[in-house]
Amino acid sequence: MSEATEVRVYEPSAELVRNAAVSGMDAYKALCAEAERDYEGYWARLAREHVTWQTPFTRTLNEDNRPFFKWFEDGKLNVSYNCLDRNIQAGLGDKTAIIFEADDGTVTRVTYSELLVRVSRLANALRAKGVKKGDRVVIYLPMSIEGIVAMQACARIGATHSVVFGGFSAQSLRDRISDAGAVMLITSDEQCRGGKNIPLKPIVDEAFGMGGCESCKTVIVYKRTGGACNMVEGRDVWLHDVLQGQADTCEPEWVEAEHPLFLLYTSGSTGKPKGVQHSSGGYLLHAILTMKWTFDIKPTDVFWCTADIGWVTGHTYITYGPLACGSTEIVFEGVPTYPDAGRFWKMIQDHKVSVFYTAPTAIRSLIKAADANEAVHPKSYDLSSLRILGSVGEPINPAAWEWYYQNVGGSRCPIVDTFWQTETGGHMITPLPGATPMIPGSCTLPFPGIQAAIVDETGNDVPWGQGGILVVKKPWPSMIRTIYGDPDRFVKSYYPADFQGRYYLAGDGAIRDAKTGYFTITGRIDDVLNVSGHRMGTMEIESALVAHPLVAEAAVVGRPDDLTGEAICAFVVLKRSRPTGDEAKQIANELRNWVGKEIGPIAKPKDLRFGDNLPKTRSGKIMRRLLRSIAKGEQITQDTSTLENPAILDQLAQTL
Ligand code: WTA
d(Cα 322, Cα 302) in Å, to the nearest integer? Predict the structure, then answer.
């Protein structure tokens, strides 16, 4: 039977249901009903039970200045205290907090007590360098214990961190330092991935050389490899030097619940990336709740989220959630295919991982590798420690879901297909492993308390079985608070006038199953692409292309890709005549590398084509729907009568 017609329902095992934090669908429904009855009371109860407050809050939700919502606003807390001190006070001081596995396989363990000392020493060092509450600190580090320590140290002193993914270019780094007005940057000499040492510090130097980073007075450099590293007198200091003589304890800065814990830049449909600003109290609450309910985290679990700390998944499910719950987690420096594509399975076996959270792209690439080589197939490893699997970042196609379920989870572990976004802070729509019957390809039902819905262009609910626009009808504690430095853009992007500012607009399309009401995400409804689970704005890539001296005009669209979900396809018009043959290939390569330098390698177009022009309407608007069809290799059956230059279509259909 084909994938489309067979709908299999996977029930959680009786044992899981019995022991789960949210045990059975009745328990799930009871939580939803509680939120329905008394929305604020529900979140207030959870915030009191799961977060440790230095000053308790008395007001739960303040909607006076909507959509700039405030949660628990008169409460005070410290996020690092919640992740470290309170676990140690509960007797977990000697428990392993982090098992770090380096690219070369070296394993380092850190206990909660040791982690607190490391965080405190760095926090003291940041204070000694003049970093104060509310200052922005950019972190440009590889996956490392130091990366987590740096984020937690910022949280400890109330500095707002902005982590920039280690794969971003000097230009992207510069833009983020400049937009945030960061006072400090923490980086490393190099990073190690796939058996190679990749310089990082030279990218920092290049970013500073571009100008615009004047606010940033100090660069702290973690010596990861000891490779050649230029240190700028008066600005750059080694991490091991600034830690010298720092005390092992550090009084946390008690901050208001709304205090910005971090900024994280993400692609939007227009212009430059936006600095999504998150709170402390509400964000932490959702990180904890989702760890407990979506991952059913237990004291004996070994948790592994394979994301990078440069993405939101790494923030919530590496740096904050697992530590706030006192769990033991794996932090992995390397890549899934080195030394071979069995790395994930070997690490699950070696460290007895019980909860494993990864992305569909990784699974799809590992399926391919396992098909080609039995030695790297999950069945060649002992994965019996696993009890729950998770997926994030993009839709997981049913075939990949089934493979993951059977071969990795041994047909015994539920898969939580978690839908959420940088802006939402944590899971929004997801199965709960001891409650929700699963249907491959569906992220199932909203997390208890999350008012997800599907509406039409005017904001009216559409019936189940009919596609529409995904919205969230009520504010929730871990939501984005604003776009740093651009509150208008925040309102326009997420609370648009289309819905009279009533609903949060996720930017995705979705449909609910006519019978079960289960949600399936149908993809972005804006000009944002999802390539291997990474968000890329088409406009950003177009701007990068037209910044090249040869390029007159460019249009970027996505097309479906078996491995990466979506692939970037760029249509380019040069200032000179349209190149052909080897010359076209050579220029295409040059442009690809250019985009890699402007944004980062993840933004390089997979498919790049040249035309004398782009398909435009008589009023000069680029017809993107035509480009999408061409990119897919479809015959053009659409109406092209409004097209100024129909002959261009044949030209653009030619791949290089
Ligand atoms: C997509 C990553 C389908 C979606 C946490 C969303 C998903 C964007 C899923 C956010 C999922 C994320 N099923 N699509 N389970 N999870 N997405 O900000 O388009 O990097 O809007 O956050 O990824 O990407 P972001």
Answer: 10
